[in-house]
Amino acid sequence: MKNKFTIDIDNSINSGQVFLWQKNKNNWYGIDGQNILEINQENKIKSISNVKTSFFRKNDDIEKIIKSISKDKIIKKAVRKYDGLRIFNQDPFQCMISFIISSNSNIPKIKNSLEKISEKFGKKVIFKEHEFFLFPQPEKIAKSSINEIKSCGVGYRAPFIKEAAKMVISKKIDFENLKNNDYKEAKKNLRLIPGIGNKVADCIMLFSLNKLDEFTLDTWMIKILEKYYSKEFQIETKTVTEKQYQILHEKIVDYFGPYCGYAQQFLFKMERENYEKKWL
DNA sequence: CCAAGGCCTGAATG
DNA sequence: ACATTCAGGCCTT
Question: Is A55 part of a structural domain of the chain?
Fold first, then answer.
């Protein structure tokens, strides 16, 4: 019997937030930084480190969150249809690299690139009789050459990736600080990293820095706003400019409230399924 | 402040 | 087959 506290693992993994996951028979296996997670059919979670993980955000009061974001028919429908969809709390470094790679790309390709990066630079480990590669540490990527990084299929993003890793090592970017920063401050800092603009910063903040009060405005979310929310949020320019992004974002946070990140995830999932887009 | 064009790559499209 | 387009953007002009 399904209830509000049951996580729908398949839908949550296949919602554009994580990429290094694979299903083997009935179990899901995923890389999260230096950890590997296994989820079986009964939603039992095991990790290679046996350290308690907050990956599944079980402390979120999901009932309260759902109530809070359920402002209209559209979002209510999405919430109902994708009942167990949850946001994960990822390793920030892996999340940051993932979304730098995501720009101007698509899910299968992002996954492919991240797998190559893990294989090339990450530590090989055996877990549950399967071979995995952990996500590489920042140091490893920072001292690699641009061409080595390029060989993972990331193209022009290679120098961004290297610089991002260097900024983490030098503490110009400190994830623990960013977690304590508010939305605006964290975003300002993240955007110092090359390859991280509005959209990428928003993803990193929602998926790894506990910023539930963000709403990512990628092409899909814009499409959704135009389709279902044209009265509430008018988009004035052809492409969403810096200024427009800010104005729109503020309006949306006003509308959906402090947990609007969840609203984004439900709407995104719904619309992508409508278009039958590919997942992992 | 806004619009336009280039950028790696590979899957999809014609 | 082979060329062209396009995809969860970013950055520079």
Answer: no
Q: Say what the pTM is.
A: 0.96
pLDDT at A1: 44
What residue has token string 């998926």? A207
Strand C bases within 7 angstroms of protein beta carbons: 7-11
Report the CATH number that the domain containing residue A39 is assigned in CATH.
1.10.340.30
- Interface residues 93-132 of A with strand B (CB < 7 Å): 104-105, 108-109, 112
d(CA A163, CA A27): 36
> Looking at the 3D structure of chain A, how many domains does it have?
1
Q: What is the pLDDT of residue A279?
A: 86
How are beta strands A35-39 and A124-127 bridged, if at all? unpaired
Tell whether the model's pLDDT for residue A2 goes beyond 80: no
Continuous segment of H or E residues that includes residue A22: strand A21-24
With vertex at residue A30, the alpha carbon angle to CA A25 and CA A32, rounded to the nearest 5 degrees, is 170
Range of the domain at A34: 9-48+61-80+90-274
A103-138 confidence digits (pLDDT tens): 999 999 999 999 999 999 999 999 989 999 999 999
Instruction: Answer whether A118's CB lies under 8 Å from A20's CB.
Output: yes
C-alpha span between A252 and A254 (Å, rounded) = 5
Counted residue by residue, chain A has a size of 280
CA angle A52, A86, A277 (to 5 degrees): 130
Q: Is residue A2 part of a domain?
A: no
Structure tokens that stand for A213 in this block: 């009060």
User: Which nucleotide's C1' atom has the smallest distance to the CA of A247?
Assistant: B1
Contact by Cβ (8 Å): A136, A20: no
